[in-house]
Amino acid sequence: MALDSILVFLIVGGIIALVVLVIRKIPILRITNPGEVGKFEQQQVRYQLVLNRLKRQLAKYKQRLVALWSKPGNSKITPEKSITHKLSELEEFLKKTIAERTSPQKTMADYLAQAEEATKQEKYNEAESAYLEVIRLDPHQLSAYQGLGEVYLDQRDFEAAREVYEFLLKHGRAATSSLGLARVASGQGRLEEARDEYIGALQLTSIAQPRMELAQILCQMGDYTEALKYLKEAKKIEPQNPKILDFYIEVSILNGQLIQARDGLEALKQANPENQKIAEFARTIRELEQKQKAKKPSRKGRSTNFGLPTSKR
What we know:
By secondary structure, this protein is mainly alpha-helical. Among the domains are: about 40-65 and about 110-205, Serine Threonine Protein Phosphatase 5, Tetratricopeptide repeat (Alpha Horseshoe), CATH 1.25.40.10; about 215-295, Tetratricopeptide repeat domain (Serine Threonine Protein Phosphatase 5, Tetratricopeptide repeat, Alpha Horseshoe), CATH 1.25.40.
């Protein structure tokens, strides 16, 4: 009976926490200025983003409770520790919520700065909440949607990220959305779709990172020649980037391209002379050069008169 009471308490505690979370998110779901064109569609997107997140959190609560209930020998669980831990979590959550409600009004810039800093520190739940607050304050702030998509990618929540990038695609952010959808497809292992999305995104951006990511996809598909093509472009954009140079040398060697491999090695020596892979790359390039020389037919002793008689004087 005591264990049943504890489980009921935990369930009720979890539901209370979710209710508080829903109440906290309600302002995000409101439609403001309903007369504006496209506002209903944006409200639906915001609603779906929050609703999907709440569903995922509720599913996690259910999984934990089912696991606790079905665990063999659950009579050995220490009630005091379980209750104390759950109460501490709920207390901290309520304190944070009350503090946010009673603190001075934050501006949109404050929330954006908070979201960016939280993302850097990998505090993804905090970053997500801050970006959603920006969206509540300004539904047209597409940079917040972009940040939210990146947060979901970092969390490997690919379906949530896809929803955000598809929304951005409908609102004129073709480059951002194509790149985001390419990363979603890559994360889900759909390499051909990722390749096509990356190629489309590269038509709209001149930065190096997507070209390196596309080269990685192509290498996974076994197309090292195409991979080297995009790595050349990335190297041209950022000629001193050690990561790009490292990858460029590797793919050049795989393609048997000695000139490109040597060129990349010299650039790496200048960009990062303490790189521990320099000696390894140099040795691999020498071995490749020796193999290529061994394959070439020797010219020694070969006749140059094609079997014609030699004239005597």
